[in-house]
Prior knowledge:
By secondary structure, chain A is mainly β. Helices cover 7% and strands 39% of the residues of chain A. By secondary structure, chain B is an all-beta fold. Chain B has strands spanning 19-29, 33-37, 40-54, 59-61, 67-72, 78-88, 93-102, 108-115, 129-136, 142-150. At the A-B interface, helix 1, helix 2, strand 3, strand 4 and strand 8 of A face strand 1, strand 7, strand 8, strand 9 and strand 10 of B.
Amino acid sequence: xxxxxxxxxxxxxxxxxxxxxxxxxxxxxxxxxxxxxxxxxxxxxxxxxxxxxxxxxxxxxxxxxxxxxxxxxxxxxxxxxxxxxxxxxxxxxxxxxxxxxxxxxxxxxxxxxxxxxxxxxxxxxxxxxxxxxxxxxxxxxxxxxxxxxxxxxxxxxxxxxxxxxxxxxxxxxxxxxxxxxxxxxxxxxxxxxxxxxxxxxxxxxxxxxxxxxxxxxxxxxxxxxxxxxxxxx
Amino acid sequence: xxxxxxxxxxxxxxxxxxxxxxxxxxxxxxxxxxxxxxxxxxxxxxxxxxxxxxxxxxxxxxxxxxxxxxxxxxxxxxxxxxxxxxxxxxxxxxxxxxxxxxxxxxxxxxxxxxxxxxxxxxxxxxxxxxxxxxxxxxxxxxxxxxxxxxx
Lengths: 233, 151
C-alpha cells in the first residue's frame, strides 16, 4: 500500500515552488532549467570551481584537474587535532518517484533517475535508475556512480536535515527554527550527507578509505539535489 | 541499463560545509577480541568507561553499553563501527554511532550520528552530522574522539 506524497521533510529554503509528481518519462523528454537560486558558499564556489576548472560557465567537466585547497578547522585548545575539508567532487542527482509507505515508522521511497558527477577527483554520471533513497527518520540512499573510465562505484549515503533561524555566526551555535517555521521568517536549512563508497580496485580505491561529508541542496524544476562532497583530511 | 538525459540546470555551484568543534570523548576499552571472518579480522572491544568534555555537553560513558565492532580488511584498513550509550550530567541518555576508517598511516576519521532526547537539554545533537578525528593509544585500550559539527 503506497501513495505518491511530498518528500518527508520538505526544505523550506530552497523549495519555494510546489513539487510535482514527476515520472521517469519526464527525464527522458528533458526538462527546462531551473530559476536561479542562490546557494550558500558562493565565494567558495567561485574560488574552488576556478581552481578545478569546473562549475558554471565551464566546459571542462570530466577533465582531470588539480586538487582544491584544504580548509582546516581546530578547537579552542592547541591539543585538539585539526580536521581539514577538501572539495573532492560534486554530484547532481535527479529524482523520479516519491512514494511513502505508511509503515509504523513511515518509509519513504525516492528513486534516482540519473545525474552527473563533476569536480577535481571524480567525474562521471549517476547510473540511471540505479537505486533510491529509502527514508526512515533520516535519509538512507543507495545507488551507483559510473566514472568516466567505466568503473561502477556504489554509494550508500546517509543524510540528516534540520532547519535553523538563519546561518550560524562563527563561534555561535545555530538556533533551531520552530516547527513548522513561522511564515515570512528567515530559515537556514542544514542538509548534510555522509556517503560510504565501495569502489573497485584501481584509480578510485582512495574512496574506500576516505571519510566524506557533503553539503546537499534541494532544487526544483526539475526535482534534483546538488551534493558537494568534501573529503575529510 | 536505463537511459537518462541529464536536464540542463543552473545549480552547478558548490555548497559549503563549515566545521565547528563541539566536544571530545575519552573512552576506555577492554583489549580487542579478535576473530578471523570472511570479511577480515573482526575486532570486538567492550567499552568500559569514559567521559565527554565540551562547552555544550558533559557526559559519562555508560559502561558495557556497547563498544567497537571494527573489521580489518584485506588492505589493512580498519572499518570503524562503534556504538555506545552516554549518560549526560543531567541524567539524560544519549546514543552515539561512529562509521569511518582507521588506516595504517594514522588516519582515523569517522562520522558520528547521535540521538538525544528531543525535549531535553541536548536536542541540538539530533540531526547534526559530526565529523570525528580520533587518536588511539599504543595499547589500543584508549581512544580520544574529537567531534566537529558539520554546519
